[in-house]
Every structure is written in structure tokens, then in C-alpha cells.
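Example with several molecule types.
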Amino acid sequence: MSILTYIFGWPIVAALALVLVPRNYRVIIRAIAVLATLISAALAVKMFCAYGSAPMDADGYRFVQQIPWVESLGISYHVGVDGLNVGLILMGAIVAFAAACCSWEIKEREKEFYILLLVMSGGILGAFASLDLFFFYFLHELALVPTFIMIGVWGRGERKNYATFQITLYLSLGALIALIGLLALYVQSGANTFDIPRLTEYIRRHPLSVHAQNLIFPLLLFGFGILVSLWPFHSWAPLGYGSAPSPTSMLHAGVLKKFGLYGLIRIALPLLPQGAQGWMQILAWLCLGNILYIGWVAMRQKDLNLLIGNSSVAHMGFIFLGIASLNLIGVTGAEFIMVAHGFLAALSFALSGYIYQKTGTLQISELGGLCRQLRFIGTVLLMAAMAGCGLPGFANFVGEVTVFFGAWTVFPLVTGLALWGALIIGAVYMTRAIRNVLHGPLPDKWAGLADASNLWRKLPYALLLASLFVFGCFPRLLTDKITPDAEKIVAMARGETVAMGSTRLRRVQLGVPPNWIDTRETKVDPINPAASRPLTVSGATPETTRGTRVLHDNSAVALANNTILNQ
Amino acid sequence: MKLELLPWLILFLPLLAAGGITLFTLRYRTVSALLSIGAIVTGFVLSLVFINANGWQPSSAESIANWLTIGGLHVDFGLKLDALSLMMLLIVTGVGGAIHIYSFGYMHADRSFSRFFAFMSLFTFSMLGIVLANNFIELFIFWELVGVSSYLLIGFWFEKPSAGDAAKKAFIVNRLGDFGFLLGILMVWGLLGSLNFTVLQNKLTADPAVLGGMATVAALLLFCGAVGKSAQFPLHVWLPDAMEGPTPVSALIHAATMVAAGVYMLCRILFLLNADALHVIAWIGGFTALLAALIAVQQNDIKRILAYSTLSQLGYMVMSVGLAGPTPAMFHLTTHAFFKALLFLGAGSVIHAMHDEQDIWKMGRLQKKMPVTFWTFLIGTLALSGVPPFSGFYSKDSILGQALSQGNYALFILGAAVAGLTAFYMFRLFYVAFLGKPKTQAAEHVHESPAVMAWPLRVLAVFAVIGGVIGVSQTYASQFSPGEARESFGQSLVEPLTHSPAGVLVGLAFIAAGFFAARALYRDAASDPLPEKLGGLATAMKHKFYFDELYEATFIRAHDFIAAVMDWIDRWLVEGLCIGLVRGGTDLSGRALRLVQTGNLQTYAFLFVLGVAVVMYFVLGK
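Resulting C-alpha cells for the full complex:
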């Protein structure tokens, strides 16, 4: 059996096992949940480390397992990973473990809560591992439904019921639209298979008609978009996260939400390339709604959780921008942020959950000076806020800066505006929050607050923070895995145009400078034609050297560059 | 290249110290301090060893590890080793080391002593990263890290609301500069396809017009980064507020590190700056120098006077870069690092002795009780004012000489006038705080600081005296204008006179005027006589020409206003509309469907048959 089956199977099995445990065995219930997610996280780490050396199947997937199920419809149980989901599964498993650890704040109906949490964890990990559209969708729904129940039953705040109502309505609608799109895709393709690699291969040879693509792509874009809180379909997110118990927010904002983005990249882009190309310009502008508009909205929030929720919605904008740029750099950056944001969102909600647990409020005006009393939690919250405004060293920076480089070649104006959102607006609301929550004098009523004291309590925060550091400092751990598969996706999404040999699109695909400087290309130096090489090539030249090297002489470098350029 | 690993070690030692303190030794105060001090002092020694072994221009200029490669985006983590970076390495570790040692005494009573040293080491690491970076993204990474570590240090006493506010302000204002900087980086990458300085320089040398029409825009965007970090007009407002941090932090930020980063960066990317951009840069620098000097004249807080003097001196450096003179700029940066660190640490010594009193009008007559502080501060004042033969004289004169040699007489006169103003406000400070009568009880009962604070003062004072003639300028010149003959010690001693005697004389005349004006006004003054004489101008100076108020009323208000509007729209329109539509739609379809569910069997049968007929039509009819 594939290791992937174990990764998402353990939480599901544990959930079933919990049904049999009497409800007053609290410690056992909790231990089972934590243990199951721990095993799953450990396996995911193992899978991630072994990824490079694992054998690939013909379609480029690793750790593959396939069992036929409903053959008449072409449904089979099929799991596997490539660069697009390997990071997501690792992130999801770690977040699931952290969420289980943070569930100590739940004090009533613990058994039901842990069952739902495990179903949610297993479901979403399974959805990411699935290479079959049926299971892909079904397991996502399996994870989605517990969200509603958890917010409704264990949620907090006055607007809990409204939040539950809104999030259920919205997400069900989004999932429904996406389902229609997926079914239409299945029917229209004529391949009679739900298997994603088969379907991809089939459509590569028999592309859908442009008409069909134009009809189906918007369904997937907006269906998945609603699930990811694409502006203007975002209003469920901040309120939903604000009202949810923190383990639920952690799992949903961190992991479950990435399903829509993953679906867009895995399914919509490569299978509906012509449908996609027309929408990318619009998507780029919509993402500004997330980045700028939601950024401004976040500046106004008076509740810490709503602020984190809004900032989480704002971060989705960068991912959409990376996707919209439809080139290797942008899509890789988008994939990278998906992983980074998973850790960050989970960490932020875990921290706000801790503060709420201790103080009973998240009103920013009520808090203040907490860094003195809560040294560990305060320090980690400070780091999370800094990661949130894109500080280097944390994984988010790598993803965001990569997306900017990718998007700059296609949408310079949008990138410039997004930069404003990332560097200025993000910094303003984050530093304001720090100033008002962590800095300043400590109100007397919080003088007795207790910090996370023992190692067990600190573990989930430390784990998530460490993950952010590891990928922030050593991004190649992830990018080297993503890049080859992102390249395939991008090639398919732009396939037609590359075949036509348009240099502009070819360059855009490689992430090479845009057209507005091309006029210089025509100038030819009559004396030394080699010196007036076309500019297009200069940008396309990847630095050929890797690993450690020492440049011994500048002129040698120049010479080497020229040699490459003139090829 | 010999000892190739040393620069890596120099860079990462402070990070190790910061990490070690945070994770393990927060409870052991002395261990933490020794770790941090040990890291930076070792860095200084290793830098000397490395330079001794390889000279100022090591045979292989770069040492590289790949950090990120995605398609056409290639980012290295590399170290650039040349005279510029090696000299900065010495300054950062040397001056920074003196400040670290001094902090051991200054911060000794603070309860977050360990945390302080962890932040200091993080700051040092970030600054060393800027100095050694060999490409734009690496530079930007450390650029941001310097921003955040300064945020942490300025807000070190975070329980004080003013400290929290100042930290926030510094961070955001710096981010405004970084916005332009990153945009500039994207533009350069977009046009040239590389981020590595050496590769970029080669491309530009091969084809100077390769940037085309965007050259000036790109250069000015990159300059934005320097405007933020080096606190140039119009983003100068954060620096004086940064005085909220502990005094050693001010010394570190103002002297050797953060603010120097902007000037250093401009010198590093000089090849990207074209003539038009340089012109703008020169005038921004000159204007900042004048503006800050004017504001300094009417400040009463000892640290704020020094802060504005820093702004003003940075203006000089930026102006010098703009006048195509990186050597004078870096020369002044170096001597300024010596005497400004000295002045700040001296001020800290006074503040420490006065029990956190910073108003110069409450001090006075300190020379008997604090001789070391008194004499070293005097040396610093003389050096900053540009009195020969102190170090500041040589570097300031080389900048004025640069203006003359470029034929820019307007900026020359401006520079000379600012030199006069500098002498005026520094001697105002000196007369009021150190001479005259003791103005309060506290000033009569001060004590000299302990040896751990006094020795760094002495060492820095020596360099503030001799910094101008120990070959700093020639080392930089070997990088920026190779081929010039090295001068002997005697030559460099009289270099300004042989180089541009007219410039020296004009400069000295202004300085003398400033000194005598300050002497006449403040020798025995008990309160400031200037406001009466200048009237409204003095009020404007005192209020820093109302820049804070202006930004408050425009930039901050505008953002808050937009945020309020967006929030309203979000709350009432988007949420209301979307939810309303979905809910209304569901509701409506529910009602519509209810009409179908009549409960009437005939209707059901009719619909059933209708359905079957439709299906039959589609299945069989086609």
C-alpha cells in the first residue's frame, strides 16, 4: 500500500475507533487523536524526505497506488504525489497534528469534536493525495461538512450562528459550482474516466472545443474561487474564522482552503488552457481586490481574529496573482505560498486561540502589553505577524517575492499595486496589531496571565514556526520538487501558443522580460553583430551554474555569459 | 583565495549568537552578553586576518551557493569581497564591537539584558549580510532583516507607548522606501535578466544603453530604498523618533550600520545610476543636509540633536554619491561612523550619569566630574564640525572638493553652509551641556561611567582623531578609481590643501563662523536666546518644519480614510449583497419549487409523463 494511504488513512481509522470509546475517557480520546495525527505527520515527513529517491510512474507521480472501483464510470482509487501536492500533504499533515494538539481548549463534547477533527484531517489529506476526480471531490466534501458543524456547535462570539449560516451557504454553493464544472469536464471530454492522469493525457491529445472550455473554465474558476475566498466572494472567510474554534480555523484556513487553488492548478489550467488564458487578465485584477481592498479592510478590524482572517484572505491574492501570471515562476511561487500560508494561518489562529482561551476576549482595545506576560506566545505572535508582512527568513517571503517576479513579466502594473499591498498595507495592519496587543503597558487585569509553560503546550507553535523557518531559509527543498511539475502544467496551459512559436508567449512562459523593451532587438551593430544579440535571449538564459562555485575573474564571467547568450 | 570560509564565519557568528541566546541562555545574563560580544569581536579579528591574507581585492571576488532557481529566476546566496565590502566589514564589526562592549555597562541594570544582546547580534548579522551581498535579492533580504531588527531594538522598551510607536513608525517608513526598492529590483531584473551585481555590471559595461528609456526610472526606484534606510528627505521622519531605543542602539543604528546601508547600497550599485538620476540624488542629499542641520539648531534633547546631525551628515554622503563621488561618500561614512558612535556613546554616558535626563538645558559643567566623557565628546564634536586635523575635516573636505571638481557651485556653497551650521549646533550643544554652570541639582552630582563604558569611548576617540589620515580614502579609491597612486602619510595629511585650497578655505571660514556664533550666544546662556531673534523660523525648526504633522494629515489620514470606506463597503455592500443574493435566490427557488409540490397526484403524474416524454425525445429523437 502506498504511504499516502496511511497518511490520510490513520486519521480516518482513528475517527472510527473513537466512535467506540466511551465519552468520559477524555485522556484516551485525546491521546488517540493526537497519536493518529502524529503518525500521519511523521509519515508525511518521511514521504517528503524520500520524495527525491522514490520511483516515478509513467505520468510522473510517485508513491502511486491504484485500485479499480467502478469501472463502468472510470472511477478508481488512485493516489500519488508529484511536485504540486507533495508540499501540501506535508503541510496538511503537520497542521493537522498541531490542530489536534491545540484542541485542549475544547472542554465540552470532546469526543464528537475529535471525531470531526480527524475526519476533516483525513478527508483533506486524502483529497490532496487523490488522482481520481471522484475521490478528489468526495474527500474534500468529507472534510468540508465537519467545518460547518464545528463552527455551529463549538464556535464562539455573538455572530456565531450567522457565521455558520453564511459559511455553509457560501462554501456549499462554491463546491456545487465546482462540481458542475468537474462533471461537465468529465462528460465533455468523452474519455469516460475520472482518473486525472488519464484524463490529462486524453485531453492533451483531444483538446476540448474552445466553446466548451469557455463554458467550463469560469465554473471551475469561480467554484474553486469561492472556496478560496476570491474577492468578491470572500465575506464568509473572516467571520467564519473569527467564530470558529481555533483548531477548525487552523485546518480550514491552513489546509482545506488550498483545495480550491490546488484544483485550479491541477485541473483547470492544464485541461482547459484556452478557457484559462482569457480569464487570467481578469483574475489578476480580481486578486487586487484580495490584496488591496481586503488589506484596507483588515486595517479597520477591532478583533484580532477578524484581522488574522482578513489578512489570510489578503494572502490568497498573491496566490491568485501567481496563477494568473501563468508562467513557471508565478505558478511555482503560488504553490510555494500555498504551503507557506498553510503553516502561517494555522500558527496565527492557534496563537489567537491561546490568547482567547486565557483572556476571554480578542478585542484589540482590551488587550495590550501581552509580550511582558506571555513571553513565549507573544514572541511567536510577533514572528507570525512579521511572517505575515513578508519578512525574509519565513517561507511566505520566498513565495511572495517569486510571485512578484513571475507576475512582473506579465502584469507590471498589477504587480506594482500588489507590492504596495504586500509591503505597506500589510506592514501597517500587522505593526498596529503588535503595537496594540503586544506592546504598550500591560493592563492590570492581565497581570496574572499564564504563558504556555511546558514543552507539550509549546510544541504545536514551535513546530509550525520551525516549518516556516525551514522553508524560508532553504526554499529549494520545496521549489526543486515543484518546478518540474509546474513546468508541465504551464506548458499545457500555454501549450497551443508555444507550438505556434510565438516568441513573446514563449518568453512569458519562461518568466522572461515582457515585450515593451523589444524594440531594441532590431538594432544591429554593423561592426560586431555578436555584441548586439537579441535582448530576448539574454533574459531567457538561466544561470547555468549550480551549487557552490567561485568566480575567479569578472571578464571570464562576462565571456561565459556571452558564449551562452550567443548560442 | 586563502581562508575562503572566513567571511562565511564572520557573517554567521552573530546569527549563531542571537539564536543561541534566544534558545538557551536567556536566563544567564553574562553568558548572553559574552556570546554576543564574542561573536562580533571575533568577526572583527577574523576580518583583519582575512584582509591580511588576501589584501583588499581578493583574487576571487565572489563565493556563491545557490539559494533558489526557478526558470529564469536565479538567486544566489553569495558573498562579494572587495575593498568596499571588506572595509565596511571592518567598520561594522569594529565600531559595532565597541558599542557592544559599551552596552555591557550601559544596559547592566535592565531586566531584559539577554534579549537586548540577542537583538543586537541579529542586527549585526543583518548588517553584515547587506555588506556582503552579491545580488539584489540577497541584499533585499538583509535589507528587510535590518528593518525588523531595528524595529525590535527601537521598540526594546516596548511597554513605553512612545517606544512602541517609534518602532512602528520606523518600520513603516522604511517599508515605503523598500516598496520603491523592490519595484526597482523587479525592473532591473525584467530588463537585464539577472540579479547578480557582477553580471549586471558586465552587461551594462558591454552595452551602456541596455536599460533604454527606463534607466532613470529604475535608478530612482532603487534610490528609494536608500531614501528610506538612510533617512533622506522625504522619508527622514523615522530617524529622530528612533531615539526611543536605548542609547547604544541609537549609536549602532546611527553610526556604523543601518543608516549607512543606504549610502553603501548606492555605492554598490553605482553602475546602474545614470546622470539624470545622480543629479536628483545629489540634490536630495544636499537638501536633507540643510534641512536636518536647521532643525538640529533648535532641538534641546541631546540625542535628538545628534540624530539630526546624523541626518545632515547622511545628506552629505548621499550628495557626494550624487556628485559621482563614491570615494568621498564612503570616506565620510567611515569617519562619521567613528565620531558619531563616539558622540552617541558619550551622550549615553551623560544620560546614564544624569539618571535618564536628556535635556541639555538641565546639564552643565561636566568636565570636572566626567573627564573621559568630556574630552572624548569634545574630540567627537571637533571631528563632526570638520575642524582640522580631526578625521571629519578630511572627509567633509573631500566631499566639498568633489562638488567643486564637478563644477556644482550651488551644492558646494550649500555644503559649506551646512558645515557652518554643524559647527554652530554642535558647539551650542557642547557649551550648554558640558560647560557653563550646572543648571540642575542632578548635574552637580554626576559620576564618571565605569571602565567598560569609558574604554570604548577612548578607542573611538583615537579613531575620530586619526581616521582621516590612515588610508581609508585610498582604500576606497582603489576600488572606485583604480590606478591612482597611493599617497604617503605626509601627503594625505595635507591632501585637502594641495587638492583644492579654495574649497578648504571657504569651508573653514563657515566652520569658524559657526563656532564663534555658538560661542557668543551660548557661552553663559541659561536659556536659549535664539527663538527671540529668529521668531517664527525658530518655532518651525523646533517643530521639525511640521513634517510629522504633514504626513499625519495626508498619508496616514488618506490610508485610514480609504480603509474606512472599504470596510463600510465590505460590511454593507459585498457581504450584504452576496449573502442577500444567495439567500434570496435559494429562498425564491424554494418558494417556486413549493408551487410544484402541490400534493396533487394528478399534477405529479402529469409532470412524470412530461418528463418521460422529454427524455424520450432526447434519447430517441436524435
